[in-house]
Amino acid sequence: MFVRLFIILILLLISACNESDNESETLQLPRPFAIITSVQGQTTAGLKGIDSDNNGIRDDIDQLIKQKFSGTLAIKHAAEQEAQALQKFMEVNTREEALIATEQIARATSCTFKVLSDPIHNYEIRQALSIEIEAWTTNTKERLLKYLESSKLVSGAYFMQPIEPVCN
After folding, report:
1. Can you give the pLDDT at residue 4?
2. Is residue 10 a part of any domain in this protein?
3. Cα→Cα distances 94→5, 37, 98, 100, 155, Å
4. Threshold 0.70, pTM exceeds
5. Separation CA 45–CA 23 (nearest Å)
6. Are 98 and 91 in contact (CB under 8 A)?
7. To the nearest whole number, what is the mean pLDDT of the chain?
């Protein structure tokens, strides 16, 4: 969890530095960690954004999954499970809700590892999936602050490995 947070903060800092130097330049990250910086439609304001199909995933993240993580139905479902779990984490208000949401994130991460189990061929896809969905989930100041607030709620907690089945 803390590694993800560190990566997000680094990406935000890099993005902020890049924007202040020259707004027309785009940051070129090495593949596969190049994050899609635009999807069809706009990133919406507010914590929840727009979820027009009510699937628990913001429309901009649905589009990201469609563009980048739909190689197979299993990969698409794993990406959707991770996006839904992260969105739930963003909406918690109590420690109990945060603990439940964190367990769902752990299940989703385990599902991603199960679906993309080949450590040589799937490592980059697995990393990109987790990093990019988390980055998109926290892509505004309001969302990042809520993510940090939710993370504080689970501070000091410990978790066990999720029990099968891990994929929804």
Report:
1. 57
2. yes
3. 20, 32, 6, 10, 12
4. yes
5. 21
6. no
7. 79
> pLDDT value at position 13?
47
How far apart are alpha carbons 14 and 12 in whole angstroms? 5
The mean per-residue pLDDT over the stretch 28-47 comes to 52
- Residue 118's closest CA among 74, 159, 84? 74
106 touches 162 (CB < 8 A): yes
- Asked if residue 110 belongs to a domain, the reply is yes
Q: Would residue 58 count as lying in a domain?
A: yes
Residues of the domain holding 89: 2-153
Q: How many domains does the chain have?
A: 1
Least confident residue range of 18-22, 91-95, 97-101, 112-116: 18-22
Residue 162 belongs to some domain of the structure = no
User: Which residue reads 């994130």 in tokens?
Assistant: 105
| Separation CA 142–CA 159 (nearest Å) | 27
